[in-house]
Amino acid sequence: MMNTRHNFLDRNALLLRACSEPLTDSDRTRLTAAGIKSCALTMPGERDPRTGGRVEAPAWLIKWAALTLEYVEMEKALLPGELFLFIIVNWRFD
After folding, report:
1. What does the H/E/C string look like for the chain?
2. How many CB atoms lie within 10 A of CB 30?
3. What is the rounded distance in angstroms from the CA atom of residue 84 to the CA atom of residue 88?
4. Could you report the per-residue pLDDT of 29-88, keeping only the tens digit for each?
5. How many Cβ atoms are within 10 Å of 79's Cβ, its own excluded?
6. Fewer CB atoms inside 10 A, N or C side of the chain?
């Protein structure tokens, strides 16, 4: 499935989208629903000099994670059918 729906070109397109599209509330909702929260979305070892709090990762990186998760959700929905089709097509009666 990755060869047809998430190949090298698709992955680069996701990166381009992440750099050019704004981060949305639905992106953050998707990440939170998958358990990807602030701990994973901050820069390790960096602190905001004003507040002392953790510094959030760049918006493009968070957007990329959300877009990648969107693919994972699509794969989760389509994979059972793809596997079933593979079994049907490759079934051999001996």
Report:
1. CHHHHCCHHHHHHHHHHHHHCCCCHHHHHHHHHCCCCCCCCEEEEEECCCCCCEEECCHHHHHHHHHHHHHHHHHHHHHHHHHHHHHHHHCCCC
2. 18
3. 6
4. 999 999 998 888 888 888 888 888 888 899 999 999 999 999 989 888 887 777 777 777
5. 11
6. C
Q: Which two tokens stand for residue 76?
A: 């989760």
* pTM summary value: 0.75
* pLDDT at position 39: 81
What residue ranges do the domains of the chain occupy? 2-90
* ∠ CA 41-66-46, rounded to 5°: 15
Overall residue count recorded for the chain in this entry: 94
Kindly give, in sequence order, each residue whose CB lies less than 8 Å from that of residue 27, ignoring residues fewer than 6 positions away: 62, 63, 66, 67
Closest by Cα among 94, 92, 74 to 1: 74
